[in-house]
Amino acid sequence: MPEPETTTTTTTTVTGRLRKASITAADAILNFNPQPGMWAATGTAIAYAPTLTELREPLAGGENIEFNEHGHSARTVMKDEGGIPVLSLTRTATATATQVVQPEDLEKQGTGTGPPQRRQTLAQQAETEEKHNWKETLGNGFKAAWRFVSSPTGFLMTIYGLNIVAWGAMLFFVLLGAAPAMNHPSKDALNSPRKKWIEIDSQILNALFCVTGFGLAPWRFRDLYWLIRARRMRNRYAMKRLAEQNKAWFRPPAWYFDGEGGEERGVTFTGEYAPATRMWKLAFVVWMMVWNTLFQAVLAAMMWGFNRFNRPTWSTGTFIGLGCGVSLMAGLMMWWEGRKVKKIEGPAVKIVEREAQTGHFKGGGVAVGERRDVGVRGGG
To answer: Which top-rank group of organisms is this from (predicted)?
Structure first.
């Protein structure tokens, strides 16, 4: 008689594992922080795009410009034995000098007999009088653009944006009657190729808008929940989640850092910290994203619930305009605030910790001191 008992135990074990796996997957999805929308991703990407000055910098920019998971320009740093961040893979490539920033050099700071010196910021570590010439600067710009497009977020943004531009432009020109061959038997005939292509373009654009409007809806309403808890209850955990989601442009209020259990500020490239962002700006962005989903739901109902013969003529243009408008305003807010944050704090910082004794980075790289065998362009 032990067989039924064994079968029951096995079934219970399998069920428990499936339940645990489903809970883990749901938690991972909810903890994931995608960009809230296409315009939001575009706004912050532009705000953090490398400037001409950065492209000319041999150490702080140039070939060392990278992009993080959200497509924002970043610089990689490592932590030394004392937990202090130092630049990694920072080598000049000018026509007159070659220099590598070594952690040992930074450790020598403040070891003299005088008063202790303030440890250099990442920006100060990369200071140099040398600049790339215009040919190298142009090459660095093309390399940075390729790195952006090659990143997962940059690739998706490029493909999605090109589709929106292409189908939107086609709809625009068809509406203007730019293709007279489609006006058969007449321009406004219901069965004319022009009317059919207007419907095709509109349905494709609606589907593209549904990708972000519905695909990002769970995270948009999650952010709304955290916003209510942060604003009404001053919940520190809710504010932490919002700060992580919007770290490219939003800085939390003082109460988030003060008092027992307050959060520590992260590492910035310049060593400076942007002032706290007004909470109404965060609320504005979150609500605009929610309204984008709601307007998209109405647009989808109009596009799928009616055909092109009985659909109200005003519905398509109205809700496309409303949906794009609220998303655009959120993106503009994120761009405006993001550029102010970058102006103070510098580009984003990617911290790569070095494993003990080996000198190798976690993730496949090697310590700065181990990069002496990498070819560097020098000059005489």
So the answer is: Eukaryota
Q: How far is residue 74 from each of residues 15, 40, 268, measured CA to CA in Å?
A: 44, 18, 11
**Confidence band of 97 (pLDDT split at 50, 70, 90):** very low
How do residues 299-356 score in pLDDT, each as one tens digit? 999 999 999 999 998 999 899 999 999 999 999 999 999 999 999 999 998 887 665 4
Domains of the chain: which residue ranges?
47-81+130-259+268-352
What distance, in Å, lies between the first and last C-alpha atoms of the chain? 88
